[in-house]
Amino acid sequence: MSRSARDYDESDVRVRPGRRGSRPRTKERPKHEDAVTARVISVDRGRWRTVVAPGTEDERAVTAMRARELGRSPIVPGDLVGLVGDTSGRDGSLARIVRIQERSSFLRRSADDDDSTERPLVANVDLMVMVTAVAEPEPRGGMIDRCLVAAYVAGIEALLVLTKADLRSPEEFLTSYAPLGLDHVVTRRGGGAATEHPGILGLDQLRERLSGRVSVLIGHSGVGKSTLLNALVPGTHRATGVVNDTTGRGRHTSSSALAMRLPEDEGWVIDTPGVRSFGLGHVDPEELLDAFADLAALAEQCPRGCTHLEDAPDCALDDLVADGQAGTAGPARLVSYRRLATALRKNDPWAL
After folding, report:
1. Widest pairwise Cα distance in the chain
2. pTM to 2 decimals?
């Protein structure tokens, strides 16, 4: 005779051992104390290329994926990360990034000035190298101003590199940036076999400034950025392009950011894809003023709501700087701030 459903009780229920979810969940995360430190050098479709123990006999390239516990945290070239799993670097091996070390700097931009969405570029750099040609294509000072804003806010030093000075004298362009006290290097084509590098003059001065530092190169397409990198890091083989005769703009030759170690040096240089705009929608005007600590202290004497720009009524900065009350700051510092503040308030980065 068959048993009816009401004849069953709890003793008839069998629980499979080891079923998923049988163990209580915990919020404690593994500490990964055995994680290996590596530097991220490139990102490609959800995979990060890293270097472990650079400059030592154990140096090796390791491909890694993001661990689930990191969520959507951005991981960019220059980041120092912790790896677990297979960190051998063998073909087909894949490690996991479980930790992002605290960053010394984080360079970002936005698509447009009215777009506050951040686009992370690089991390842990201490020098931004702004590369622009004095001709072919024509230099655009607005791009440099915008890069300077981002560099100041991120706490990164800036260096201006002018290329193709054999086509036009750079003096007129440099004059407009003289009040900023911006460090610069001028390079030109035309060196022979007996020069510091065949085809490029001024390369030694650039090497000197990059030595022992982590630098990022930023510039429009076609300004000669990849040519400089191929000379600085032989064997890199970054693609070089030409300038369109109709538009006067270069073609994108580098499709992704790549960090490279300078030969016989502890320094790193990160190449970024050629950019056409550098939006500052993620930057707050107050952040810019805070970057000029000496002027920020004086600005407290300005009327409420003062923009501190040249046409601002009753701005106290002019008189205070002229009277020498700015300490180490002088008129050049005020000119620099106002130039960058004006660039920050522009709404269309494409019209530079």
Report:
1. 109
2. 0.77
pLDDT tens string 270-313: 998 866 667 777 777 778 888 887 888 889 999 998 999 999 99
What does 38-71 look like in DSSP terms, one character per residue?
Answer: EEEEEEETTEEEEEESTTSTT-EEEEEEE-GGGT
DSSP of 104-164: S-EEEEBSSTT----EEEEES-SEEEEEEESSSSPP-HHHHHHHHHHHHHHT-EEEEEEE-
- Give the chain's domains with CATH numbers: 36-100 (2.40.50.140), 106-271 (3.40.50.300), 285-351 (no CATH)
Which pLDDT tens digit goes with each residue over 97-135?
999 999 999 998 876 666 666 788 999 999 999 999 999
What is the tens place of the pLDDT at every residue in 183-206?
Answer: 999 999 875 544 455 568 999 999
DSSP single-letter state for residue 7: G
Q: Give the sign of the dihedral formed by CA 165, CA 166, CA 171, CA 176.
A: negative
Q: How many residues does the chain have?
A: 352
